[in-house]
Each structure stands twice: as structure tokens, then as C-alpha cells.
Amino acid sequence: MKCQKCDRPATYHITELASGTPVELHFCEEHAREYLASGQTAPSDQMTQIAEQMAEHLVKHMVVGKAAEELKRLDQQTCPYCGISFHDFRHQGRLGCPNDYQAFREQLESLILNIHGETQHKGKRPSKGAEAAARRTELIRLRREIKEAVENEEYERASQLRDQIREIEEAG
Amino acid sequence: MLQEGENVVKLDDLLARRGEWLRGEGPESDIVMSSRIRLARNLADFPFVRLAGEAERRQITERVQAALADSPFSPELLPVRVDALSELDRHFLVERQLISREFGEGQGLRLVFIDRQERFSIMVNEEDHLRIQVMRSGLDLEPAWKLINELDDYLERHLTYAFDEQFGYLTACPTNVGTGMRVSVMLHLPAVVITRQMDQIFRGLEKLELVVRGLFGEGSQAMGDFYQVSNQISLGRSEQELIAKVGDVIPRIIEYERKAREFLMNESQENLHDRVSRAHGILKTAQTISSEETMHLLSSVRMGVHLGLISGLDTPALNELFLLTQPAHVQKLVGAELDSADRNIERARFLRKRLNT
């Protein structure tokens, strides 16, 4: 069977019920898509949609709520642990490390409210808790600093950092 | 640390098995193909994957591997270095839904632990350090939650997760933060599609903060009338509330599909019977057939079987055909890489063999 709109084989067979009596329609994939799209919202790609929403909310919130200078200041804020700026996040759509939620808390709070309609987690929590997690996240900063110290041949500082790292690691 | 190439050959073992989500058993399995829950987790002391260098990625995989080493799950676990796999093998795992498409196509060191019965898999170095997912056949969310919660508890005893009092489990993308949980149910809705009610369902679900996506195939086009319903938000609701949010709406969608089938049977049973019989006939006799056409025809046959219009086929066998006729599976069955034209010939040959015995 051929597509009703072209010479390709019809692989989609649609029964239209809108008119009361069923009408059979036969389309190739392209024309079926075209037909269905005309009356039906295609399932949009979830991530793209969310990313767009995010960008939109961010822009709205930042531009409407804040003066240009304020926006610039927020954009330039960086996470002292992983080093990414809020501007980086806005462009990548992905955060750099767990401490970003601390470093950009103010900005993220309004974004998260927009996405989830809430800002307070509810449900399961790890038995080790948030404090132990935050302490371990410090290792990201300390490992970066020790690398820098070694590169700059600041061995005394490197040794202090190593002790701090060891202390956190041994705490579990 | 797992070496490249190691265990790769064992992937072929999976080919001979029918994974959990294809069992075709469980509640409402004529319409609900499978239930799935995934949790996103990150280790507290590493940058998120996008900023993690190769050495850090290696340390992350080693941590997870060590955490799982003595676990009650480990005898059944197959660790696979995805970055060391051929493109064909990566597609194979995507088709089996053991890894995400993004993970298959990603960059850098990444590992997946596959449960040999395919009840769950754990991706390491996806967008988040850990993506744990559990699959069940039919509408079966509570047992899925029970298992994933156990897996998560076990891992958490050996790892320190990134967690914040306010924001919950911290994830690379703020859309997943909080519970880090996505609950998905995959539905087969051919009659809803024929009667063009999908639009209505989409809009209704949107209001409930649920997302519908087409399943199988590239992009968002629903291949073979499979749709996946999942929660959009992950923060501010407990895991149980999110499961209820998705779980409560599914019976209503099932009802839509059953009503639409009833309508088609009452209004135009001859047309419907003709349609499913022709679909069956093409699948049994075609000499070359694309994956797209196969999905489309199998969808009709699957509905025909459940309406008693076609006999001699059951749900598990049909579910398996949907998987085994996917491009990477056709090539794995033949044991060689094939171009699209050859795949279509082999697919037709395979279908004739399966459907004519």
C-alpha cells in the first residue's frame, strides 16, 4: 500500500475518529509524522525542554530581578573548590562539584524553586548525614591546593595540606 | 581496576537470555511493558563527572568497585568497561536499556555493572558518578523501589554521598537534585494512538508534573507505540510520594487503552482484524524489512494477540521480538557487523524463522 501523499510505502495506518465515522489514513513515516504533528503535540525531548526552561527562568530571574551589574557580579562568582563560575554553569547547564550548591546557593535556590516548585528536600537521607558529606567535599579543594603547592615547591604547605587530607580521609 | 577488553566476551551471554523487563509477566503486562526506577548519586569528594579528569574517573570507578566487591549482589554482577567496547556492543547495551544512550556515546573512562538477570544496572561516570537503575516486568514499582533502596543502602555504607540538608542528594544537574529519583513506566498504547487520544493524555499528564516520551529509536518519535511516563520533579517529594505520583496515574492510562481497544473492536472489528492479520502476514513473509516497519507491525500484532485476533504467540515471545529485531541485536545474532541493507535482510530472515515455527 502506498502513502496517500507520496509514492513511498505506507507504514503508518491511522484511524481518524474525529469526524464520527472512522476514516482510514495511510502514510509513510514522514507524512504520518507531519499529519500527527498537525493535531498532536509531539513528545518533546525532556532534557532539551528542561534546559530551555532553565535558561529561560534564569534569564528572567536574573535580568528582571537584578540590575545588569548585579547579574555580572553573580556570574563572576566562582566556587573555591572546583573553580567554575556561575557563568560557566549557566552556559553548560551542569555544575562542577557538590560545593557549587553551597557557593551558588542563592542563585540555585530560585532556579530549583522554578524547576521543582520546592526548595526543601524530603525523603531518604544517607545515614552519614550532610556534615560528613560536606567535610569530605573539602577534599576536592585540599587536593587541588596540594597540587598547586607542590608545583610551586611550597613543601611545608604541601605537608600541612597532606595532614589535613589524611585526617578527613581517616574520619571515613 | 578492570582492564579494557576483560569481560567483554561475556556480553554475548546476555543475548541468549530474556532480560527482566521483557519477561512479559507481572501486573498489567499486556499494556505495561516495564517499570523502572533510577537514582542519581555522587561521591562527596570528587568533582562531578564533567570536570573529573581521567585519573579521578579511575578513582571513582575503583571506589565503587571496592564498595561492591563483597556485596551480596556481586556474584551476579558483570562489570563492563563501556569506553573499551565497540560501537556495536555499546548500541547493544543501549537497546537492552542497561545503559543510557548518553552513556553509550559519552567520552572517557566509564563502567557499568550489569546484573546477569538484568534486574538492575549501575552506571559509573554517567552524568553523575552513579546512576543506579532497577527494572521490573509489568507495573511493579514497589518491588523495584525495595531493590533499589537496598542497593543504595549497601553502597552508602561504603561510600560517602554528596548530600545537603536543604537540597538533598546533590547532582550535576539541578533538575535531578533532591531524591535523585526518576520513576518510569513503559506502556504499549497502540489503540490510544490509532484513536488519536495521545494528545489528550500528554496534556493531562503535563498538569500532573509528569513527562511522556516515546520509546525506542532515536529522538522522541514513539516507535512501536511505546511511551514512557515519568516524574518531572525530584525535589520536595519523598520517594514514596514520587512513586505514588507515577503509579496512581498509570491505571487511568491503561483504562484509556482498554476503552480504545474495546471501541475499535465494537466499531470496526473487521478493519482491526484485517490490520493485525496483514501486519502478521508481512512479518512472516517479508524478505527485507527495516527496524521501523518491524516495530510498527509488531505493535499491531502485539495488540492483536491480546485481543484474541491472533493465536499461537504470547507476550514474552513478542516482547523479545521487539528487542531482537533492533539494529545492534540483529548484528549480534548474526555475529557480524552489517550495513543497513544487510540488516534488513537478516531481520526479515530472523522474523520468518521465529514466526513460522
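qc> Chain A has eight helices and two strands.
qc> done
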